[in-house]
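stage 2 :: seqdesign
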C-alpha cells in the first residue's frame, strides 16, 4: 500500500488534526513514514497565524517540485489554516500540488487522497530496483547519503510490477541511481546477459504491461547486451536518458565520470542505430570548477551536433563534503548563468525541431489527465516521452489513444484524437477552445477543498 508523510506547522490543534488524518489513512492500509523521500503521499498541515510558518510550508512544498517531476505518481497536498485562507491560489502557484483542504474537511482527506492515488497509479508507476551508488562523481553527495549499491531481487521486482499491472498500471519506470548497473555485485550473468538486461526481459514478459522505461543510467553501463535489448524488447519505450554532463574530456576526468567524449558519441550512434526513431535526452552541468571558455565551447558544439530531444541543463552548485566543492578555480555565478542561458537556447532549438518533425504524423499517447496549462484538454506522453495535448473525454485518462499531431510548440505537441470506427480512423473535432474553465473542482460545503481534475 502507499506510504504517507505528514509535516505539521503551528499549534497543538494542528498536531491533533494531523493525527486524525494519519489515523484515517492508516485505517485504509497506508503506511506512515518519517521522511518525504520515502512517501507516495506528502501532506503539509499548515498554520496561518504567523507569516514565518506560512513561508516555511510554502518553501518546503516548493522544494519538492523536482521530486514531483522525478516521481509523477506522488500526491502532494496542503491542509489546515493556510489552505483555508489561500485556497485555490496554492494550486495555481505550485503546479505539482494536487490537493488543498481547509480546516473543516479533515474527515474527507483520506477519501480525496485515495482518489488521487488511484487516478495517478492507473496510468504509470515508478518501481525502485536499487539503492545507493558506487560511482563517486566528484559533484555528487549520493554515495555518502545513500550508501553503496544494493539491489532488489528480480523475482521481488517482477512481483511488484505484476501487482501494479493487476491494479491498472500500463507503464512502469524502473528507478535506480545508476539503474543500468543494477545487480552487478550481487547477481551473476546468465547467457552472457547482465542482471539489468535479465530484469528488463523478465518485466517485458508481464502480460498487460504496455510500456517499460528506466532511469537514470550511466554511459558506462550500456554494454552490448543492453543495446541489443533496446533493439528488440517490444515494451521498452523508445526513449533513453543518457547523461553527458560535459563534452570536455578534461572536465569529465575532474568529474570522475569514467568515459570520454568519443565513447559517449559512439554510444549515441549505437543507440540510434539500434532503434529507429528513439529519443535521447541528457543532463549537462555548466560552470564546473575549472571549466574554461574552451571547455564550455566543446560542450555547446557537441550539444548542437548531437541534437538531443531535450536536455536538463544545471549550473554547478557546491555540495558540502564533495571533492568538487574543494576544487580550485570555482566559476563566478554570472558566468554560470551566461553559459546556462546560452546552452538552453541551443537545447530549445533542437527540441523545437524534434517536435516539428512529428507534425502531420499519428502518435500513440498514454493519456495521463488534464493538461496543466488548459484543463479543458487532456495530455499524455508518447513512447518517446513527448508531451501531447488534445481534446477528449476524461474517461480516456489511463487509456492509450492515437493522436494526429497538428502543431508543435516548445516542449509540447498539439493534436486531434483519432477515433477508430469500422477499421478506419476519424479525426475527432478538437478545434474548439474553452479558455475560462476552472482547473480544479471546488466544493465549499462545510469548508473549501480543491483538487486538480
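stage 2 :: out
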Amino acid at each position: 500500500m502507499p506510504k504517507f508523510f505528514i509535516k505539521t506547522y503551528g499549534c497543538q490543534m494542528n498536531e491533533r488534526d494531523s493525527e486524525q488524518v494519519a489515523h484515517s489513512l492508516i485505517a485504509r492500509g497506508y503506511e506512515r513514514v518519517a521522511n518525504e523521500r520515502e512517501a507516495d503521499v506528502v501532506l503539509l498541515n499548515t498554520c496561518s497565524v504567523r507569516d514565518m510558518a506560512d513561508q516555511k510550508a510554502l518553501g518546503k512544498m516548493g522544494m519538492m517540485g523536482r521530486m514531483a517531476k522525478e516521481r509523477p505518481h506522488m500526491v502532494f497536498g496542503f491542509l489546515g489554516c493556510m489552505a483555508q485562507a489561500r485556497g485555490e491560489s496554492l494550486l495555481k502557484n505550485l503546479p505539482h500540488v494536487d490537493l488543498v483542504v481547509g480546516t473543516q474537511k479533515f474527515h474527507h482527506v483520506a477519501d480525496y487522497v485515495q482518489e488521487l492515488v488511484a487516478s495517478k497509479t492507473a496510468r504509470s508507476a515508478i518501481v525502485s530496483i536499487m539503492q545507493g551508488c558506487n560511482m563517486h562523481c566528484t559533484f555528487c553527495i549520493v554515495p555518502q547519503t545513500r550508501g553503496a549499491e544494493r539491489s532488489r531481487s528480480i523475482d521481488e521486482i517482477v512481483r511488484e510490477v505484476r501487482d501494479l499491472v493487476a491494479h491498472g498500471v500500463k507503464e512502469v519506470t524502473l528507478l535506480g541511481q545508476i539503474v543500468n548497473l543494477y545487480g552487478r555485485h550481487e547477481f551473476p550473468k546468465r547467457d552472457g546477459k547482465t542482471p539489468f538486461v535479465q530484469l528488463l526481459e523478465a518485466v517485458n514478459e508481464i502480460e498487460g504491461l504496455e510500456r517499460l522505461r528506466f532511469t537514470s543510467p550511466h554511459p558506462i553501463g550500456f554494454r552490448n547486451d543492453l543495446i541489443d535489448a533496446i533493439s528488440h524488447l517490444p515494451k521498452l519505450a523508445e526513449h533513453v536518458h543518457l547523461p553527458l554532463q560535459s563534452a570536455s574530456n578534461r572536465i569529465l576526468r575532474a568529474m570522475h565520470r569514467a568515459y570520454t567524449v568519443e565513447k559517449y558519441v559512439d554510444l549515441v550512434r549505437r543507440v540510434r542505430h539500434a532503434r529507429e526513431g528513439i529519443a535521447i535526452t541528457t543532463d549537462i552541468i555548466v560552470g564546473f570548477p575549472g571549466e574554461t571558455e574552451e571547455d564550455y565551447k566543446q560542450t555547446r558544439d557537441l550539444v548542437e551536433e548531437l541534437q538531443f530531444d531535450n536536455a536538463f541543463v544545471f549550473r554547478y552548485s557546491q555540495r558540502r563534503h564533495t571533492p568538487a566543492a574543494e576544487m580550485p578555480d570555482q566559476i563566478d555565478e554570472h558566468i554560470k548563468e551566461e553559459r546556462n542561458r546560452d546552452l538552453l537556447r541551443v537545447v530549445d532549438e533542437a527540441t523545437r525541431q524534434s517536435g516539428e518533425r512529428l507534425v502531420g504524423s499519428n502518435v500513440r499517447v498514454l493519456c495521463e489527465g488534464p493538461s496543466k496549462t488548459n484543463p479543458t484538454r487532456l495530455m499524455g506522453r508518447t513512447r518517446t516521452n513527448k508531451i501531447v495535448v488534445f481534446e477528449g473525454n476524461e474517461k480516456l485518462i489511463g487509456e492509450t489513444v492515437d493522436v494526429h499531431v497538428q502543431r508543435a510548440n516548445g516542449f509540447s505537441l498539439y493534436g486531434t484524437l483519432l477515433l477508430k470506427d469500422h477499421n478506419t480512423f476519424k479525426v475527432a473535432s478538437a478545434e474548439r477552445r474553452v479558455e475560462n474553465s476552472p482547473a480544479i473542482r471546488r466544493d465549499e460545503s462545510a469548508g473549501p477543498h480543491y483538487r486538480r481534475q
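stage 3 :: structure notes
- The CA atoms of residues 402 and 423 lie 13 Å apart.
- The chain is about 35% helix and 25% strand.
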